[in-house]
Amino acid sequence: HxxxxxQAASRGKRMGIxxxxxxxxxxxxxxxxxxxxxxxxxxxxxxxxxxxxxxxQTTTSDWTPDLARRLRQRCEALxxxxxxxxxxxxxxxxxxxxxxxxxxxxxxxxxxxxTAMGGRRYEDFDSREGWxxxxxxxxxxxxxxxxxxxxxxxxxxVENHKDWQATDLLELMQAISSEFxxxxxxxxxxxxxxxxxxxxxxxxxxxxxxxxxxDMGVREYEDGFLLSEVPLGQGFLDLQxxxxxxxxxxxDIRFNLEMITREPLKVPxxxxxxxxxxxxDQAERLAEGLKWIRANAQDxxxxxxxxxxxxxxxxxxLNNRLSVNFAEEQLGLEG
Length: 335
Hints:
335 residues, alpha/beta, TIM Barrel, eight-stranded parallel β-sheet, three-stranded antiparallel β-sheet, 39% helix
């Protein structure tokens, strides 16, 4: 007879859900009769409320003042929160669009806006120069955004999005040096850059404004390794420690689940192109990274290839609910 696992001490907050946790159901053109896409942020909020989530982080680009008012009313009635996901200005001409989007989302009570600057660096670039251009461009975009978020007294949170190593993002934060610009700490993305999650979190936590919480599964393949989001508690991340580190620097930060149900991603770190954008000691990083990837390798990673659309949506829903349950039972979040 095993003793019951000790319930974690309550953190006094509930898990939020990132819109990308519904990447399958949320596609506007998906054809499921049983599980139609969510019409808007209010519908997403109502849905995640059914299994005890505390709020949502979702895209704000198509919001109207009416939607913002309705979302605020539902958040207040259900004691939930909404965070935004926004595209930073791409040019000076784009600043008014960014300003208006923030203004409308503020009406819904949104004070934190996650943003991402690039895609997968090892797929998007085949030279260091290409990557440095993205860095330069990102710096410019944050400079355009900063006066707007300062004016509205809201926070912009740049994500480590399989593009930035933690040290790159730290550099950006130190350069911009604004209380209104920080980081969305994604606990899994930087594994794709051979950065251990505990190191990513340690470096970024001082600038944390919000989070993408995920657990990761890995396994080797001929060109490197496969990387998969898995339900919380089923991967190799030390989530207890990660939560503690994140809250040490910002006790009010929200934990938002980003459980993307999909086929495993290929990270071709044994291919030359993968290293084109890096300038550090590749051999050492590769050896070190592969060591912990091998140590944590799983035989099977979850996938969706052999499932019908409705089965994929049901699987996605199950993964989200399992993760929220784990967070409540083991990580001190409330239901």
